[in-house]
Design goal:
- The protein is an alpha/beta fold.
- The strands form two sheets. A five-stranded mixed sheet has the order 3-5-4-6-7. A two-stranded antiparallel ribbon has the order 1-2.
- Helix 2 crosses helix 4 (135-149).
- The protein has a single domain (40-149), classed as Glutaredoxin.
- It is built from four helices and seven strands, in the order βββαβαβαββα.
- The longest helix has 17 residues, at 72-88.
- Bound molecules: zinc ion.
- Zinc ion is lined by residues 11, 13-14, 16, 31, 33-34, 36.
């Protein structure tokens, strides 16, 4: 099958990479390995265990919120980020990375301040924005970044 007929979609629960027919990409399919829904309307929790599946192997760009529990602006932005997920998925997958837990990943991408939003596609950074944003600004920024990179049709 070509890329126009199916997409690789990572599973946040078990780290498997699922091949999903394009016609079913909008539906909330389940992981073929663990049976957990590939999307549940909430941002995924990004970890070392599922990073490769979600950020490197998946055909769906990943919008990551680098945050920490002690960061007030991060906690304030959390509801806005969750709300953005309902509008940006399934074009994008949204995920949260706790920089206290996953310090290695935060260091890999040189996160200097939080919150920082980053769009990753096939492991490569395609956009980055620091500072808390409301839902409308998150969506507008993400759509602009995708259009600029020509991946808005994914
Ligand atoms: Zn799974």
């Amino acid at each position: 099958m070509s890329n126009t007929e199916s997409k690789l979609v990572g599973c946040a629960a078990c780290g498997a990479t699922n091949r999903v027919p394009a016609s079913k990409h909008d539906a909330r399919g389940k992981c073929g390995r663990c049976g957990v829904a590939l999307r549940n309307g909430e941002p995924a929790v990004l970890t070392m265990e599922n990073f490769a599946a979600l950020a490197e192997r998946s055909d769906v760009p990943l919008l990551v919120d680098f945050w920490a529990p002690w960061c007030g602006p991060c906690r304030q932005m959390a509801p806005a980020f969750s709300a953005a997920a309902t509008q940006l998925e399934p074009t994008l997958r949204l995920a949260k990375l706790n920089t206290e837990v996953e310090q290695g990943l935060a260091q890999r991408y040189g996160i200097q301040s939080i919150p920082t939003l980053m769009i990753l596609h096939k492991g490569r950074e395609i956009a980055r924005q620091s500072g808390a944003m409301p839902t409308t600004a998150i969506i507008a920024w993400a759509q602009k970044a995708l259009a600029h990179r020509g991946v808005s049709s994914l």
